[in-house]
């Protein structure tokens, strides 16, 4: 299993009550980071992913968690991020908690082994209604009974909405996961488009994005901001560079800094994980 670990020499397993823990878990992997809340500095990142063309079952994730020396500790704050392509946005004035399954099934089929959850977001004023594997949700509840998971678009929208406020006109953001990507489009700081698309290869991503551009009459002169599983000069960004002149990679921003041990990694790959500390 591919494994990444970065940690600052100040990391102290006996001081976790002064730390904030952010966990991202899904069948595509388990990763977590630790923020030293006294210094507002990220000091640890661990990532464990399944081998190529495989996924983690809830039992495998449970085993990884049980063997980890940090995940069972007490923390000042814990955030849990659960990526999923299956979600919908419901305006807050129209939302009724008792009807969240009904909202979800307007756009998606609810799998038998999944559960529907919801998150309130401030901008736009809405609820994210999404589904996750029931066993994964129960695993989170067992480990951290007082913590309600975030859908990955909660920290993503928080970060992209913030960034859009410094952009005149349109702000286009693509976040890439292993089997799907999110496309967000803000105009004058107002969310105009939000959707997820499954893909098999990078050409699929280009096809979907350019079709949305055509439908919404968005110029290919617009800047596209990327986050997630892509980087400069890889196949995806190279394909986009043939059509889009301005490409940027958006890293996490907030009232925090990073230890020097993170200097050699692409922080935009972990945008949602690091940005979870900004969310309430």
- General shape: globular
Q: Which architecture name of the domain at 3-82 and 253-278 does CATH use?
A: 2-Layer Sandwich
* CATH fold-level topology of the domain at 3-82 and 253-278: Nucleotidyltransferase, domain 5
Number of H/I helices: 7
Q: CATH superfamily of the domain at 3-82 and 253-278, please?
A: Protein of unknown function DUF3822, N-terminal domain
Helix and strand layout, with pairings?
Blueprint: E1 3-7, E2 19-26, E3 29-36, E4 41-48, H1 58-67, E5 77-82, E6 87-91, H2 100-107, E7 114-121, E8 126-133, H3 134-143, E9 150-151, H4 153-164, E10 170-176, E11 180-187, E12 190-198, H5 202-215, E13 223-228, H6 235-241, E14 246-249, E15 257-258, H7 271-275
Parallel strand pairs: 2-5, 4-15, 5-9, 10-13, 13-14
Antiparallel strand pairs: 1-4, 2-3, 3-4, 6-8, 7-8, 10-11, 11-12
Helix pairs in contact: 5-6
Structure description:
The chain is of the alpha/beta class and 280 residues long. Among the domains are: 3-82 and 253-278, Protein of unknown function DUF3822, N-terminal domain (Nucleotidyltransferase, domain 5); 162-249, 2-Layer Sandwich (Nucleotidyltransferase, domain 5). Helix content is 24%, strand content 34%. It is built from seven helices and 15 strands. The chain has helices spanning 58-67, 100-107, 134-143, 153-164, 202-215, 235-241, 271-275, and strands at 3-7, 19-26, 29-36, 41-48, 77-82, 87-91, 114-121, 126-133, 150-151, 170-176, 180-187, 190-198, 223-228, 246-249, 257-258. Strands 1, 2, 3, 4, 5, 9 and 15 form a seven-stranded mixed beta sheet that branches. Helix 5 (202-215) runs parallel beside helix 6 (235-241). The chain starts with a strand and ends in a 5-residue tail after the last helix. The model has no long low-confidence stretch (mean pLDDT 95).
């Amino acid at each position: 299993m591919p494994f990444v670990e970065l940690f600052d020499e100040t990391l102290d397993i006996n001081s976790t009550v002064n730390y904030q823990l952010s966990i991202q878990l899904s069948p595509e992997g388990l990763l977590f980071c630790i923020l030293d809340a006294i210094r507002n500095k990220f000091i640890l990142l661990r990532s464990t992913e399944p081998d190529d063309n495989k996924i983690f079952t809830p039992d495998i994730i449970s085993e990884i968690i049980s063997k980890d020396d940090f995940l069972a500790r007490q923390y000042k704050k814990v955030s849990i991020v659960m990526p999923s392509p299956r979600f919908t946005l419901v305006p807050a004035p129209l939302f009724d908690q008792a009807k969240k399954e009904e909202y979800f099934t307007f756009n998606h089929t609810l799998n038998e082994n999944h559960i529907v959850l919801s998150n309130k977001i401030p901008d736009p004023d809405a609820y994210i209604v999404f589904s996750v594997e029931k066993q994964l949700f129960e695993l989170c509840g067992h480990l951290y009974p007082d913590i309600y998971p975030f859908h990955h678009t909660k920290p993503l929208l928080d970060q992209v909405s913030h960034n859009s406020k410094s952009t005149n006109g349109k702000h286009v953001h693509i976040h890439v996961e292993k089997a799907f990507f999110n496309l967000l489009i803000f105009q004058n700081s107002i969310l105009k488009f939000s959707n997820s698309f499954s893909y098999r290869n990078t050409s699929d991503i280009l096809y979907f994005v350019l079709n949305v551009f055509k439908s919404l009459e968005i110029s290919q002169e617009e800047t596209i901001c990327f986050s997630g599983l892509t980087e400069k000069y890889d196949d995806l960004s190279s394909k986009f560079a043939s059509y889009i002149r301005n490409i940027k990679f958006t890293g996490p921003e907030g009232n925090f800094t990073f230890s020097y041990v993170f200097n050699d990694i692409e922080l935009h790959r972990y945008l949602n994980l690091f940005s979870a500390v900004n969310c309430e």
